[in-house]
Amino acid sequence: TKKIGVLGLQGAVREHIQAIEACGAEGIVLKKKEQLKEIDGLILPGGESTTMRRLIDTYDFLDELKDFAASGKPIFGTCAGLILLAKNIVGQDVAHIGAMDITVERNSFGRQRESFEESVRIDGIAEDFPAVFIRAPHIVETGKEVKVLAECRGRIVAVQQGNILGCSFHPELTDDTRLVEYFLNLI
Ligand code: GLN
């Protein structure tokens, strides 16, 4: 069985573990950087990217996460996890892991509707994916190596760069496992 770690410092961790196990893989809550050695793929969950970054620094995780990304093992960032992966964040001088050649804008779907669900077409994966957005970021710009997988309301909301996958929404909050299955197949 494939072992998938979910960065377990903050955010929607349990839901990802359940989705991984629903797909027949083993889910591991990652709380220590040493656990990165045990896993075949990594999920960076949604939550609050600034809080997550603070905890990443507290537990001295950042360099190991960058090394994991460079190793070529698959990573999937959802919502705040997508922000952690981006090379550029609008209005911020510093990135976090910075492994994906994209620019993201945080909280960019408007304040009046902090969260919503919309059916989204994900290229080659789903015609009608129920995408749940919660104070979601969107992808403003993509580099040459980045493939756009989905758009919603004219904004890019899912991308892939080699073995790195990212989306603005929360696939783990629905019963639809197609995106997680796609991720598992990258391993
Ligand atoms: N707004 C959050 C951030 O900027 C992301 C929201 C989420 O992960 N649901 O980190």
TrEMBL record:
Subunit structure: In the presence of PdxS, forms a dodecamer of heterodimers. Only shows activity in the heterodimer.
Signal peptide: none
EC number(s) reported in the record: 4.3.3.6, 3.5.1.2
Family: Belongs to the glutaminase PdxT/SNO family.
Pathway in which the depicted protein is active: Cofactor biosynthesis; pyridoxal 5'-phosphate biosynthesis
Record's catalysed reaction(s): aldehydo-D-ribose 5-phosphate + D-glyceraldehyde 3-phosphate + L-glutamine = pyridoxal 5'-phosphate + L-glutamate + phosphate + 3 H2O + H(+); L-glutamine + H2O = L-glutamate + NH4(+)
Location of the active site: C79, H170, E172
PROSITE patterns the record matches: GATASE_TYPE_1, PDXT_SNO_1, PDXT_SNO_2
GO cellular component terms listed in the entry, alphabetical order: cytosol; glutaminase complex
GO terms, molecular function: glutaminase activity; pyridoxal 5'-phosphate synthase (glutamine hydrolysing) activity; transferase activity
Any coiled-coil regions, as ranges: none
Gene symbol of the encoding locus: pdxT
Physiological role: Catalyzes the hydrolysis of glutamine to glutamate and ammonia as part of the biosynthesis of pyridoxal 5'-phosphate. The resulting ammonia molecule is channeled to the active site of PdxS.
Entry protein name: Pyridoxal 5'-phosphate synthase subunit PdxT
Gene3D superfamilies, alphabetized: 3.40.50.880
Biological process annotations from GO: L-glutamine catabolic process; pyridoxal phosphate biosynthetic process; pyridoxine metabolic process
Pfam families reported for this sequence: SNO
Annotated binding of L-glutamine, by residue: G47, E48, S49, R106, I134, R135
Keywords from the UniProt entry: Glutamine amidotransferase, Hydrolase, Lyase, Pyridoxal phosphate, Transferase
